[in-house]
Amino acid sequence: MARITLDNLAHSYLPRPAGPEDYALKELNYDWEDGEAYALLGASGCGKSTLLNIISGLLIPSQGRVLFDGQDVTHAPTAERNIAQVFQFPVVYDTMTVHDNLAFPLRNRGRDEAYVAERVQEIARMIGMEEMLTRRAQGLGADAKQKISLGRGMVRKDVNALLFDEPLTVIDPHMKWELRTQLKKLHHDFGHTMIYVTHDQTEALTFADKVVVMHDGRVVQIGTPDELFERPEHTFVGYFIGSPGMNILPAKIEGDRAIIDGAEIPLGRGYGPVDGKVEIGIRPEFARLSADEGLPVTLRRVEDAGRHKIIRAELFGHDINIIAGEDALIGPDMTRVSFDARRVNVYADDWRVTPVGEAA
To answer: What is the DSSP string of 235-302?
Structure first.
């Protein structure tokens, strides 16, 4: 296991980048704590895989350093970093049996056969392939091959870090849940530093201790699932986390009030002068529909999502979403919306503004 330090790190695929827009990964400084489980979360093309490949040694960054426990490994090959990486599409040895695929990393490091057999059985049980150990990998389906690839990544206990690049893409939904659970158990039992790349917020939020949200090559927030939900530091985080995402509305801020089209929305906290592109963000969970309180809204439709209802509405010409309980009755007279004042966030040029008196 290792503490991974990213020092002034950035990367461009162009030979002579002229500005920030030419960088696939914009400048980043961060310490990945030894033994933590992280998820890199963001849309396709945001820089997640670029960052993971720099950490693993498959890519040398344009600037900055990568350190493992204080040792500079920026130019060290992958083999010297003592990491295991599992890719989006399975990489297996077709001519080998499932057992020999799982055993390969251990045999390659000279572990005795008794230990190899014990560890392979343990991993095979974890990935649900105990009955297939004697079968050749050739001819197995993509999901089975990916389970082998995952197992081979997890079979060693002595790695500095386990890196996963969207490893569950080809796995069926039921097995995805089981494997995520097993990965969490592996982390709990052995304390590996784990970094998991995904564009799926459910995978990220259920797997990680901390989620690293990326947008346009930049890390916009690193936090626990609760922090990302309660206090998104960037409008992208509010939009990307949650289903549906945060409502973002243009506003003017005057102390502890937001003004939208002349109507006041209480904020619960005071703010100093806010300049630039000013917006407020409120999650659908913290909006309430009623017949007599709040601002006038136009209801468009109500969607039954099983555990709750999603109300699609319009407020002063802006689309908003409201979440109500599964048993809530939505009558035709319920045409007003109010917000939980303490849950409203203020943004300037997409970044959260700190209220007066709150620690930055």
So the answer is: HHHHHHSSSS--EEEE-EEETTEEEETTEEEE-SS------SSEEEEE-GGGEEEESSSSEE-EEEEE
